[in-house]
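ESCALATION

Customer reports they have been waiting on this structure for their group meeting. Please prioritize. Original submission:
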Amino acid sequence: DSILDQANGKIILLNYNNQTNVEYLIEKLGSITKGFVVYFGVRSTASSYQESVLNIKYDNGYSNLIGNEGYFECLVNEDVYNEYLSYLENDIEIEFEVYVGYSIELKESKNIIGLYDNKYTDQEIIIGAHYDGVDCPAANDNASGTATMLELARVISENKLNYDIRFIAFGSEELGLHGSSNYVDTLTEDEISNIEYVINLDMVGVGDELGIFKATEESDTELVELADKIAEKNNVNHNVYTMGRSDHVPFDYYGIKSIMLLYQEDLNYHTENDTYENLLESNIENDNIKNVLNLVMRIVNKINCGFQTKSEINEAA
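Update from on-call: job pushed to the front of the queue and completed.
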């Protein structure tokens, strides 16, 4: 409530680098704020984001300013962000003149859901991946995650598990996590309590280090620690990070134990070079998707054995 009170009628300065649920906050606070000024922080694969300033177009054709009547989001570079931050820290008033030319076209997006139903319990694990992409081939972001999820569904369907497994291809992730947010927001309290874990697969095809991500510094670490232990014991080059972007975030907001698996770095992120050929080259060298498939199956199998305590995590895999 204090955040809502402070945000009401204000322009919010956000730094992606602080690893909060930025996109989810934007969606939830957008109706009461006048707008957001966003710095993406350390994101070397998205130089067009870092270089954007007011009234400058991205190299790939996206404007750095989006919005509608009474509301806007503006992406700025580090220098502009630090300038605005110093103003706020010194109680210096900032004046904004924002001119937005836009058109609105309503479109429908859908989540596509499949269920492995063990018939004996309502407790479930969600394995998800967004199937939308930006205006490029989108092979790694995120055909790689969607294809990996489908292969997991095939393999898991041939096994006997003690949990339900729900496979969700989320729509409209690139527009602000709309698919995953809508899904979890419309669940009942009982349905939310039935979700034990969420594993989100995003950009798993390119890079030489697998990132195991929690949504915030305050997120529950049980699933993160399990994935970390399994990856370490199976010699997967990996590290644990925090990232408040992608479809694990709305579930974390509701207190559901969630992780994202993402290989890094992909220098072709959100460009016309995000192609099957580049994805294939990285997989031949690093076994990216194979590593993710094996890791998720080991996580699912360990959960299936019924681990409940932190001490059991140390014996994982």
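Sent to customer with the following note: The longest helix spans residues 139-156.
Escalation resolved.
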